[in-house]
Amino acid sequence: MEIKQLVSGGLLGILLLSFSLPCFITSSALQVLRTPADTVEQYLSSHNRERAKLGLRPLQWSEKLASYANQWANQRRDDCALIHSNSNYGENIFWGSGRDWKSADAVKEWAAEKQYYNYQSNRCVQNHDCLHYTQIIWKQSLYVGCGRVTCRSGDTFITCNYDPHGNVIGQKPFR
């Protein structure tokens, strides 16, 4: 009987510890990983400027997407390779060399693909990419979160994730 009570009391203590400890760690981790307000504003204003030109609803910032983007960017730290994460989110990736690239620089590069998108045919001009641009202006995308890392080479890797994802085959980004 005494052993049973000791074991059950010990298990209760372990269960309480296991339930309270993750809450503490998660709470602390969120504070550390929270994107600075000025960085959020740079990403949002760059994206939403393009969307406003078409009368589209502004994107909202998602810390969940930003956390995912930062995790992926950190995985690219060693090689800075333009490799997509293969998630269920929409994703734009950027690589820059030779200077300290900012969030607005990446979004500006993606938005510059506008000239290669033909709305009537819903296609990119031959031999040009435009899918970064169409993801930015995808009407059904409501949230964005981005991450940035300086790679070991000194280059910059920036990624933005979108939810819901855009670039759905057979659909136009807006109507």
Major sheet: arrangement of strands:
1-5-6-2
Mean pLDDT over all positions: 85
CATH superfamily of the domain at 62-163: CAP
Number of helices: 5
The biggest beta sheet reads: 4 strands, mixed
Shape: globular
| Oligomeric state of the chains present here | single chain
CATH classification class of the domain at 62-163: Alpha Beta
How many E-type strands?
Answer: 6
Query: What's the helix-strand series?
Result: HHEHEHEEHEE
Percentage of residues in strands: 15-25%
Question: What would a concise description of this structure say?
Answer:
The protein is of the alpha+beta class and 175 residues long. The chain contains five helices and six strands; from the N terminus they run H-H-E-H-E-H-E-E-H-E-E. It has a domain at 62-163: Pathogenesis-related Protein p14a (3-Layer(aba) Sandwich).
Report on this structure:
This protein has 175 residues and is of the alpha+beta class. The chain has a domain at 62-163: CAP (Pathogenesis-related Protein p14a). Helices cover 43% and strands 17% of the residues. The chain has five helices and six strands, in the order H-H-E-H-E-H-E-E-H-E-E. The protein has helices at 2-33, 37-52, 63-75, 103-111, 131-136, and strands at residues 60-61, 90-96, 117-118, 123-124, 143-150, 156-163. The strands form two sheets. Strands 1-5-6-2 form a four-stranded mixed beta sheet. Helix 2 runs parallel beside helix 4. It is globular, with a radius of gyration of 21 Å. The chain starts with a helix and ends in a 12-residue tail after the last strand. Mean pLDDT is 85; it is low at 1-32. Probably involved in the defense reaction of plants against pathogens. This is SCP domain-containing protein. It holds the Pfam family CAP.
